[in-house]
Amino acid sequence: MAPAMPLYSSYSLMNSPPSIGTEGDPVHTVHPSDRRRVTLVDDEPYALDVLMRAARSWNFDCQAAASAEEAVALLERQPTPIVVTDLRMPGRGGVWLVQEIQKRWPDTSIIVITAGQDDDALSQCLVAGAQHYFLKPINFDEFHHALTSTMRSYLHRREKEKNRRRLEQSLDRQRRELRRTFFSAIDCLVRTLEARDRYTSGHSLRVRDYSARLGQRLGLSPRRLKRLSLAAKLHDIGKVGLAEGILNKPTALSPEEYSNVRDHPVIGERILAPIIRSQEVLAAIRHHHERFDGNGYPDGLRGADIPYLARVITLADCFDALTSSRAYRAALSPKAALDIMRSEAGRQFDPDMLPAFVSLVIGH
Ligand SMILES: [Fe+2]
Predict the structure, then answer these.
(1) Residue pair 121/77 in contact by the 8 Å Cβ criterion
(2) Which residues surround ligand 1, an ion (CB under 5 A)?
(3) Which of 134, 186, 202, 328 is the residue whose CA sits 20 to 30 A from 73?
(4) Domain ranges, ordered by start, for the chain
C-alpha cells in the first residue's frame, strides 16, 4: 500500500501550478497520437489526485487508475505514451503492470514511483523495461523532469521509428523498381533471342502458357505457379550466347556445336543467379533438359530427383518444339506430338505428370 504522502515540493500545487508548460520540450511536430497523454496509477486517492493535478498543470492529458488491472483496462481503450505507476498496490501490483505494458504496448514509456523499501520490485521493473523511477515523497521538480524527459525520448524514438520505416519503404520501392527494370531487360533478351530465328519465335511465351496451365492442373499454389511461369519464360535464356545459325541448323550439329547447345541450361542459370533469388526457379531452368530415365543433361538427374518445375517445363517445351515448324521438318499435329510423347513416358517424361498434360492438350 502506498504510504501517506508528504509533499516536498518547491511548488504550491493548489495555488500556483508550476507553469512549466512546454519548457524544455522537444521541438517535434506533435502528431495527434503523440499528444502529451499520461496514465497515472496509484491506489492512494490523495496521491493520485496530486499526481493528476501536477501533470495537468504541465499540460498533460491524464487518465487515472487505482490498480494495475484498472490501468490495463484503461490502456486497452486508450493507450498513452507514458504510464506512471506506484509499485505497491493491492491486486497484481506495479511489477506485473510494468511487465504487462512491456508485453502489450512496448512503445509505452514507464515511470515507477516507489516508497524506497521495494528494492527487489524496483529492479524487476527496471529489468522489465521501466525507463525512470523516483522515490516518495514526490519531489515535483523530479516528477516534472521525469515526465518531460520521458515524453521527449518517446517522441525521439517515434521519430526514429518513422524515419526507419520511411527508409525501408524507399528501399522497397527501389528494390521493386530494380526488379521491374531487370525483368523488362530480360523480356527484351527473350525477344532478341527469339527474333534471331523465325522458327523459335514465340516459343518461350508458349512454353510459359502451357507450363502455367499444367501447373494449375497439378494443383500448384499461386506462389509456385508464379515461379513456374517465370522459369518457363526464361528457360532458354542461356541460348543468347549461341552462335547465329546453330539454333535451327538444318543439318546435323558438329560435336562442338552440340556441346555448346547442351551448355545453355547452365549458362541460363548463371546469367540469372545474381538477380533471381528463388532457387526453385533457377533449378527449373538448369534442369529443363534432364530426362526421367537419367540420360538428360546437364546433371543426368533421374526421376523424382529432377526438380518438379523442371519436369513440368520439359513437357511444355517438347510439345511446343514438336508442334512448331523447324528448318529441318514441318510442325507435327498435336495428336502426333502427343503420340510421340506418350511413347517416351518414363523415358524422357515423368509418367505421372504426362496424363495431365495430355488431357490439357486434348481439352478434357
Ligand atoms: Fe532448352
Answers:
(1) no
(2) 236
(3) 134
(4) 32-167, 196-362
